[in-house]
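TA notes. Do not distribute before section.
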Amino acid sequence: MLLEGKNAVIYGGAGSIGGAVARAFAGEGAIVHLAGRTRESLEQVAEAIRSAGGGAETIQLDALDEAAVDEHAETVAASGGLDISFNLITHPYTHGVALVEMDADDFMAPVQTALRSMFVTARAAARHMIGQRSGVILAFGGPGDRSGPIRDYFLGGTQVAFDAIETLRRQFAVELGEHGIRVITLESGGVPESLDQGIEGRDAIVDLIEGQTLLGRGATLKEIGDAAAFAASDRAGAMTAATLNVSAGALID
């Protein structure tokens, strides 16, 4: 198995993408530590993993709370090492409003949440990985310098937030490489399965995602999980300061 004996912390582990990654990691032998703000939903994911024979722990935690994140990372590291960290929390958003009509707080909300949580969680993991001389920090972001405006749909600060994550990931990769720590972004043009059925304008969003791809469909949750498991494994041991394109061709390298 790709991740046998590894400890992986997944922030936002009860979400659709976080849960898919957790199941993929556990299926490859990792012990997954699911962190999030709602214990009940975390336990649902953990129980499904345990029922399939995997190992899962849960903790009610706000990924924006640096003291709580640091304390939890210390606990995980003490249990046998902290090998993988992946921040997949949900960001607030305001869509469908032109920038010139948007409040500054609404624009900044996803940017502040994305950047602070990525910084806090990656920093907590890195402090322990440095001593181990190994570890993988994963990010879920956008296309970085390939991003551009999307006509006919107003994304507010969302794309800016993903691009900010990518910029921060690059800096972590540069600073942590000498310690044997790999930092990789999974980039996606959107995952239709991750969208709540009741979200306003869901069909239009799905059409937007699928219309940009070369395959005529978005990536599936299972494909995202499987790609993350590969990136976190030793088979991707030479991969860092890089992006893993899981956009079904929406983002052309």
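Switch to the second chain here.
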Amino acid sequence: MTVARRTTIGVVGGSGIHQIFEGGSTRSHKVATAWGPPSGPIEEGEVGGVRVLFLPRHGPGHTIPPHRVNYRANVDALLSLGAQAIVTVSSVGSLQAELPPGTFVLPSQFIDLTKGRPTTFYDGGRVFHVSLADPFCPDLTRRAVAAGRAAGTPFVEGKTYVCVEGPRFSTRAESALFRQWADIIGMTLVPEVTLARERATCYSCLAMVTDFDVWADRPVEAKEIVETMHRNADRMGRLLSQLLPTLGDSPTCACAHALDDAGL
């Protein structure tokens, strides 16, 4: 059976990412959802002939902390406007010496240590237990790897992301423990990735290392993270400009069937 081509891609990330639009955004959408308002207006534009919807995860001006992001509304709003895949850009800390600041990482697994966030669309009524054995879309991952190489910004693959509640950074004891479990640490992957799977939608996380977590002896500083993010913005913009046009092809994954055997 022929799989339909993707025509619309959702992008979630920082405020500088919207500059990828060719000629600027063409429309701004204010969306209401059953889960409340998303983080902000969704900007629409085009990249290489593909319709792209950009949503700033932390809101315009970066005013929403990670533990207060309305992840359900964000995912629902993007899908309501026609997104057929979600590509996210996230800043992370490094838990390993071989992943210094400036490294781009494609995680393949995650560990969820968040505490107080709504993590599912299925709070009652019909029950679904979706599989997260392999949390990230293999089709998006394959295309991101190729785009990274083409843009001169190759990804490090096959790493584990530990997601913490935030907004505080780790203690030294926590960081030492996390190093035994994972490679990078952040505050925004969960529940984005689980919600996308519950909606049978392709999802990928493009992670940018901004700092070494506190295991490296020096406390993490927000100023350092922001400076590294700004240095990485142009590189990530070039990578997305390379990646997004390739996502208009027919997907080669089974993400669309995530709920086929998950319902009770």
